[in-house]
Hints:
There is one protein chain. The protein is mostly beta strands. Helices cover 5% and strands 51% of the residues. The protein has three helices and 19 strands. A 16-stranded antiparallel β-barrel has the order 2-4-5-7-8-9-10-11-12-13-14-15-16-17-18-19. Mean pLDDT is 87; it is low at 1-6 and 15-21.
Amino acid sequence: MKTKLSLAVASALLAAASSANAGITIPAGDWTLDIGGVVNAYYTHTRTSGDNVSVIGGVTDTASGDDSQSNITTGLLPNYLSVSGKTRQNDLDVGFTISINPGASTTQSGIQNSPNNQENRQAFLTFGDASWGSIKLGKDLGIFASDAILNDMTLLGVGSAAGGLAGNTTTLGRIGTGFIYADWKSQIAYTSPNWNGFSFTAGVTQGWNAQEALDTAVGAGISQGSQSRSGSTPAFEAKASYEWTGDVAGKVWVSGITQKVKDLTDFVNGGALTDDRATGFDIGATVNVAGFGLTGYYGNGDGLGTIIQLRDGFDASGKSRDSDDWYVQGTYTIPGAGTKLGVAYGKSTLDGNSAATDYLDDWKHSMWTVGVYHPLTKHLNLVAEYSSAKDEVNFNSSVPAGSDVDGKSKTVSLGAILFF
Length: 420
């Protein structure tokens, strides 16, 4: 019988949460080194229709009207080579992780290392003890919304943006069509011990600038960015979860984020500089019983934006916009074979403010995904996915008729992902 390769393995590798998943262990004096990683590639065929949404950072692949394209590319997980080390010194567990993340997609001859084809997502150290927890310093997966992506079944596959992001290190998966991206952040964070399934993490993370993507679509004056990030204070993030095992196993979690956004330009009132705050919270749960899995998630933001954090979160007057993200996902693992069948739907919405200060009515992204994930060996999964994504941008009556944007993409993905 083949050993089942679960989504938890991909989640652990993405978060660098457990050295137990490393494939190569090397004793080195006082240290134990773990080398692990991911290699994946997919053939994708995307058919698009509607308007151009790529210029506004949309989640579909539409370039201009009806089109189709094929690519061989990396999926939502990038290729990964991770080196971790751990030791016990002076009654402390001390460790580190450093990773490199090369892409598997090239779109131009003679160019093998474009700026978007190489990432360095992790470089952090930890120290602590099982009795009081651990402290992390460095760059790793963000705290807020991290469980949303770690429970997304497209973590083993492709999801959306296979055409638009060809040549990059990853696709989008369900990012922007059900949750906002946790991203990779410089941070100082504390994680508690595990108290019978309950644990929490809290930390400070690097503040980021607000960004505007909608201005590219219809001209300046739709969204507002900033140049001074969070000023004298960092961002603050935290999450808590409770996990249980047994015939009915599962996990529930909540998380939150808050960050001051400094020096937003108020174009409505003569270009004065204003400050605001971006905040967000989420809640989710996943339950597994008798081979069936069900996941539900909801997140809300104020000034947090859509797809990635702080993108189009503020209107032209510097006033924050409200956003909502949610997805539901059902899976079934066939006994014996270990093949996982899954179906999921999610939607992300960014709401505009009053017409007096904001031309945007709303911006909606949604996606259906059906997937089959088969463990060919202990470490190798074959993947087949179909994803149908839709992007809609609706402006109010202050914007000339015809400015609304509506694009769609349908992507078939076939490939494999190897863990070691």
